[in-house]
């Protein structure tokens, strides 16, 4: 027989205890003797009792759910972060709900309201629109934001060191002998793209190299469009820093179609360190973001806050590294 919280009396009768004792055992809200706990657990097993999770969440003000709101589930970088969040959450007895916003502020607001009504334990969000502060106004859930400056309305922000990422990418190409280095620059509304551009520019200026860039998003089609623009506007280019590993793949495709040899004619440095960057041929030299650490840290911040009941309001910047592979070489 499958019963729910409305039939908790069935479990209590079989165990020979009160319904209140069964509730205490299920929710862990008070100490119960070991002997009664054993009887209740045995009765639960025999009746195949299934606690009503919605009722439990209303009672305990916790559903053990973490929401993850992303701009696009098609973004592989977001998918890999989501994998780490889900795994960390599950290992700690939580579940993750993935919400795709399409960078639409109305959808983001709707998901935030939904997660609030579900008594979610917190929200991890990657949102770069200017309305985010307005969207979360009045939201009482802990919020961890990826790729944003610290703000008192967030519990914490988590990001990698994008300034250093742009800098080490440019430095590597310079060490490889490149002098006409073009950056696929993300939109200015993204904190990460502004930081990468600063790092890239500082490295170029240090070696008296003119910073060159064309704005690009991070997807495959965006990379194709930007790659063609680079060849048109900068015919002497000898090194390119892609906006992502996915756009680096687009770039390689366009360059080979135009008869360019990688890395002999033009070198490529990707960005992100996706699994994809090392399974394609040639393997992509890339700036590696600590994707798994970002996801796990974001999840732990919410989980640990619920344990400690402490406000964080902290900014976490994680280090990046350069993985040298086949799309660059020393001359």
Structure description:
By secondary structure, the protein is of the alpha/beta class. It folds into 3 domains: 5-60, Orthogonal Bundle (434 Repressor (Amino-terminal Domain)); 65-161 and 292-318, 3-Layer(aba) Sandwich (Rossmann fold), CATH 3.40.50; 162-289, 3-Layer(aba) Sandwich (Rossmann fold), CATH 3.40.50. 46% of the residues lie in helices and 17% in strands. It is built from 13 helices and 12 strands. The chain has helices at 8-15, 19-27, 34-47, 53-60, 76-91, 105-117, 132-135, 162-175, 191-206, 220-233, 245-257, 276-279, 291-308; strands at 65-70, 95-100, 122-125, 143-146, 156-160, 181-185, 212-215, 239-241, 267-272, 285-288, 314-318, 321-323. The strands form 2 sheets. The chain has a 6-stranded parallel sheet with strand order 2-1-3-4-5-11, sandwiched between helices. Strands 7-6-8-9-10-12 form a 6-stranded mixed sheet, with helices on both faces. Helix 7 links the parallel strand 3 (122-125) and strand 4. Helix 8 (162-175) runs parallel beside helix 9. The longest helix is centred in the C-terminal third of the chain and has 18 residues, at 291-308. It is elongated, with a radius of gyration of 25 Å. Mean pLDDT is 87; it is low at 1-6.
């Amino acid at each position: 027989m499958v019963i729910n919280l409305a039939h908790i009396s069935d479990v209590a009768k079989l165990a020979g205890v009160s319904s209140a004792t069964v509730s205490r055992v299920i929710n862990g809200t008070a100490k119960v003797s070991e002997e009664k706990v054993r009887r209740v657990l045995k009765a639960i097993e025999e009746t195949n009792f299934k606690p009503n999770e919605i009722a439990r969440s209303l009672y305990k003000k916790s559903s053990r759910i973490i929401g993850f709101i992303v701009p696009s589930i098609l973004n592989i970088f977001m998918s890999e972060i989501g994998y780490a969040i889900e795994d960390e959450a599950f290992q700690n007895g939580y579940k993750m709900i993935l919400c795709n916003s399409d960078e639409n502020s109305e959808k983001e607001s709707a998901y935030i309201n939904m997660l609030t009504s579900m008594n979610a334990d917190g929200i991890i969000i990657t949102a770069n629109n200017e309305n985010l502060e307005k969207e979360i106004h009045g939201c009482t859930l802990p919020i961890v934001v990826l790729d944003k400056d610290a703000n008192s309305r967030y519990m914490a922000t988590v990001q990698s060191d994008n300034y250093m990422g742009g800098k080490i990418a440019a430095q590597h190409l310079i060490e490889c002998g490149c002098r006409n280095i073009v950056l696929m620059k993300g939109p200015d509304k993204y904190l990460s793209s502004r930081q990468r551009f600063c790092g890239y520019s500082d490295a170029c200026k240090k070696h008296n190299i003119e910073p060159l860039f064309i704005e690009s998003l991070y997807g495959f089609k965006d990379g194709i469009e930007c790659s063609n623009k680079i060849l048109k506007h900068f015919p002497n280019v000898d090194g390119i820093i892609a906006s992502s590993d996915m756009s680096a793949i687009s770039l390689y495709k366009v360059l080979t179609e135009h008869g360019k040899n990688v890395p002999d004619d033009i070198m490529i440095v990707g960005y992100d360190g996706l699994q994809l960057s090392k399974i394609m041929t040639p393997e992509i030299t890339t700036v590696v973001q600590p994707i798994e650490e970002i996801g796990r840290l974001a999840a732990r911040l919410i989980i640990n806050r619920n344990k400690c009941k402490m406000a964080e309001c902290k900014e976490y910047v994680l280090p990046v590294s350069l993985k040298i592979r086949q799309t660059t070489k020393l001359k």
